[in-house]
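Kindly review these tokens for lecture notes.

. . .
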Amino acid sequence: MKRNFYSIIIALLFISLSANVYAGNPDRQGEAGASELLLNPWARSAGLHSLSIASVTGVESMRLNIAGLGRINNTELVIANTRLYEGSTLQLNSLGFAQRVGTNGAIGISLVSVDFGEIPITTVGQPGGTGGTYSPGFFHMGLGYSHTYANKISVGLLVRGISESLPDVSAFGLAMDAGVQYVSGERDEFKLGISLRNIGTPMKFAGEGLSFQGANPGNGDYQLTFNQRSEGFELPSVLNIGLSYDYYLNDENFIRAVGNFTSNAFSRDQLGVGAEGVFFSKFTLRAAYRIEIGNSTNAEAENVYSGLAFGASIDVPLRKESSQRFAVDYAYRTTSPFRGTHNFAVRLAF
């Protein structure tokens, strides 16, 4: 009874916090910056369209619901690559590490960078290019902690540093994620998850790239350096509420159904459903479908990831009867436009 009371209090806290963040107005779409915070670099959860708020565990929870970080046996290491919007040359490179601390806690660190490739440098005087190239540096580092109470309620908190830079312009910000997971049933088959993500400081670009030489207004005989002030921008805050239920066929095989509601502070809300089947504790197949609520008939206003996602995993022990496991994960998400997004990941649990 006491644990249920705590879970209700935590859920109400999340809802009250979200009331100050979410206006529920799709007219704000496009006003936030740092939209790369909404990209999921991890293949297992990407194959479910990031709907696994209630069931996500380990390293991948640091992107969806930090409360799931502590639901690992001991240690987890994940290396991932994402080919964003096939045909665009954009990629995500990611590294995540999670470690149990004590009996009920876990800490984790995640590193994510966006690879834009080499972009030709152009100027007003040389619109065809100067012959040089540059690559923007978008980098995130998150540090999180999760604690589990009696294997039923997990809570977590993560702080993420956000860096966006060009050779002569940069911006930095801090964001916080918080989450809770509740499990119930004889085999923990029912799960509820709530997460609030990307709550943080506004960001603003600054640097020498925003300055220019101009004539002195009082005396045009010499030049002055003028600094332009850039407008600040908010982070793309997100509230997720998810459910999942596991139907066991036998001890080694089960099917998990998931559902999720996403409230976006700066775009339309979303609903999604999905399922994954785990067979012989080694093979997993998953698929999901997500739609926007009140979607516009204008194709340019649609979310690039509305539609189908699917994926698969192979998870095998490193040695017979060993708890140490090696896994390969893959996911594909349809996109409009472009030719979809591919997620690849290698996972080691020991």
